[in-house]
Amino acid sequence: ASAQLQLAVPVAVVFAPGSVPGDLPKPLPFRDVQEMEISVNLRTSVTSHYEMIYRRTTAREEAALDAATAREADAALHLLQDASLGSLTMYVVPETSSLLPQGISVYVGKHRSALVRAGGGLAALHTRLRQLTQVMSFSASSVSAALSDRVPDGHLGPGARRHLKSSLGYEITFSLLNPDPKSHAVDWDIEDAVNRYVQPVLDKLSLVANFSVDSQILYYAVLGVTPRFDKESSSFLLSAHSLPHVINPVEARLGSSAASLYPVLNFLLYVPERSHSPLYIQDKDGAPVSTNAFHSPRWGGIMVYNVEVPASPQASLPLHVDVDMERVMEVFLAQLRLLFGLSREELPPEFLLESPGNEGLADWELDRLLWAHTVENIATVSTTLTSLAQLLDKIGNIVIKDDVASEVYRAVASAQRALAELAMGHLHSAFQASKEAVTSSERAFFDPSLLHLLYFPDDQKFAIYIPLFLPMAVPILLSLAKIVREARQRKKEPTKMD
Amino acid sequence: VCTSRFWFNYRHVANTLSVYRSVKRLGIPDSHIVLMLADDMACNPRNPKPATVFSHKNMELNVYGDDVEVDYRSYEVTVENFLRVLTGRIPPSTPRSKRLLSDDRSNILIYMTGHGGNGFLKFQDSEEITNVELADAFEQMWQKRRYNELLFIIDTCQGASMYERFYSPNIMALASSQVGEDSLSHQPDLGIGVHLMDRYTFYVLEFLEEIHPASQSNMNDLFQVCPKSLCVSTPGHRTDLFQRDPQNVLITDFFGSVRKVEITTDTISLDVDLAGFESK
Known about the structure:
Chain B: Heteropentamer. Part of the GPI-anchor transamidase complex, consisting of PIGK, PIGT, PIGS, PIGU and GAA1. Interacts with GPAA1. Interacts with PIGT; this interaction, via a disulfide link, stabilizes the expression of GAA1 and PIGK and links them to PIGS. The complex is a heterodimer of chains A (498) and B (280). Chain A is α/β, with parallel strands linked by helices and 498 residues long.
C-alpha cells in the first residue's frame, strides 16, 4: 500500500548574546521550514518538515545559561520551557563560552534541549543543527528500520529488524538461574530492585506501552554449552560463537504467562556452578566482556554473575550469596534500552550526551521511540487494511459482520487523524491515534469470522450442484422441448384445417 | 501435523512424532511448536505396548516419550483449526500454546503427513484441504508478515501437487512423491502389526540424526535424501519462490534454533541514593 507520511518537528533555535552569526538571512526573530525526503520504496516516502523558529534568548534564559556547568544550565532551562512531546529547543552559546567543555561543540541534555557552540558561520551552524535534530528526533535509518517490511530486500542492513516491534504491551520476566543449589544459596531481592530501579524506567516508558513485570527462580537449569577452562586466567570462558546455543535449552524451562499475547522480554541472571566458576564471556577478539552479559534482539538478555570465592577454603556449603542488584540492574536496563533500539553509539566525537540517570532514558530518546513507533503503526495499519480489502475482492461472497465493519471504519478514521497530527507536529496525539488505529485494524483483520475456508470457490459449487441437477434436468428439458414442439404443431394445424 | 486417525495409520503418527523429536533435540522449545495429532496410537487398545509409539522395528526408539506436548489432539485436528492457526484468526479465548505467535523474523517449518491425492490432503477421513486453500493461507500469512521464510515438507501420496499452487515469496517446499506416484511405507513391525514409518520421513530422519545445533549442512543435502532407489517414489522440491540460494540455507535455520546474539558492552549508571527517593 502506498503511504506518504509527513512528519513535522517544531524546532526552536535560541541565540544567546554573543553567539549570533553575522550572516543571518533575516533579522531575528524569524521562521523557516526545512524539508527532507526519505524515500523507502517506490510507493512509500516520508517527508520531514523541520519548522524552525530562530530567536534571541529571554532574560530568564540568559540567567539560566549563566550556570557553571552544562548540566545545571540544562536543568534550569527545562523549568522555563513548555516543551511538548516531539519539539526541540537548541540554545546557541558563544564560541568562547565555558559551559561546554573543551573539544565539545554540542551538549545534549536529558530533556528536549541542547546547547550548541557557535562558530564557523551560519553554514557550519546549520550542519550541526541538522545533525542534532536527526539525533534527537529521527533519521533516515531509524525511519527505514521502522518501515522495514517495505524496504526492498537487499537494502536492509544487517542490523535491520533487530528492535522490538511496536506493540501495545510487553511482558518483562526476570529469572534467576541457579544450576548448583548445593553450593550456592542465592538470594536476590528482586521486588525491591524492580521498585527502585526498573519501575522508574517503565514509568517513563508507560506512554509507549503497558508493561507487566514478573520474576522467577529456576533451579538446576544449565546452559546448553560447556565452558572451556583457560589455564592463564584460571577461569572458565564462553566464547562468542557458542553464545547463540546457550539460550535454547534454557528457554524450554522459562515458561510464559498463558493469558497474555504480548511479546515477552526475558532477563536471565545465571550464577555458574561452583565447578565452573568463575565464568567469563569472551567477545569475538577473545577479550573478556566487562559486563559479562549478552543479549539477543527481540528476546532479552543474559548476565553471568560470578560468586566470589570465599577467603577460607573450608567455608561450609552452600555459600550464601546476596546478589548486588544495582550492578545487575545496570546491565539489564542497558539491555532493555538496546532491545528497544535506544543506543548511543554512532555519534560524532564532539557531541556530549547527558546521562539520563535513574529514569533510564532521556526525554528526547522517548521521542525517538514515539516517532519510530508512530510511523511503524501507521504503515502497519495501511498494509493490514489494504490486505483485508484485497481479501474481500478475491472472495466475493464473504460476509463482513457489523462489528468488523465498524472496526475498519474506526481504524481508517484513527489513521487519518494520526497522519494529520503528525503533519502538525503533535507527536503525543499522533502516537495515541496510531495506537488506536493499529488496535482496530488488527481486530478487524484477525476476526475469527473471516476464515476463507467457509466460503466456497465457484468450481466446488459446480462440482456439488451439477451431479444433482443435471440428471434431473435432462427429462425436464426433454419434456419442455416436447411441449414446445406440440404447441407449434397445434398452432399449425388449425390453419391447415381451415 | 498428522492428518490421520485410526490404528492402521500408525505410521503417520510415528512420522510426526519423530520429526517433533528431532526438532526439539536441535533446540526448538515446546512453546515454539504447534503439534497436531489424532493421538490415538499410544493408548489404543490394539497397541501391544501401551503408551509407546515406535519408529524403528524391533522397538528401538520410542518417539512418544514423556515430554510430548500435543497442542491439538483428536477431533481438534481439523482443516479449520489448521487454517486458523496459520492465519491467526483464532477466537480470543485460545491459549498461548495453541497459537502461532510468529513475526516477520520467524522461520517456520510446516510438516504434514497423512493420505493425500492430486491437489488435496485428507484430514481424519472426513474432510480435505486443497492446495488452493493452503496457498491462500500462506498468502494471508505473508500479507501480515507472519513469517520470514517458510519450509513446507509433506509426506503423502502425490505430495508434490500440494505445493504447486504456492505464490507467496520466501517459501521452499519438499514432497515425498510426484503427482501420480504413491508414497510408500517403510517397514512393518511384526510385533505391533502395522507399518511403522513412511520411507521418505524415515530417510529424512536418518539425515537429521547427523545434524547437531552447530551443523553447517545446507538444504541441498536435504534435497538429496531418499533417492528413487531407496524411496521408490521420486521426492520433489520447489525453490523458485525462495530468495536465497538453497546452498546457503542451513538446515538449522528451520529445524533448529540458532539465535543472533550481541555482546552487551555498555551499562547505564544508576544512582543508589536517588533511587530510594524516586520510588513510590
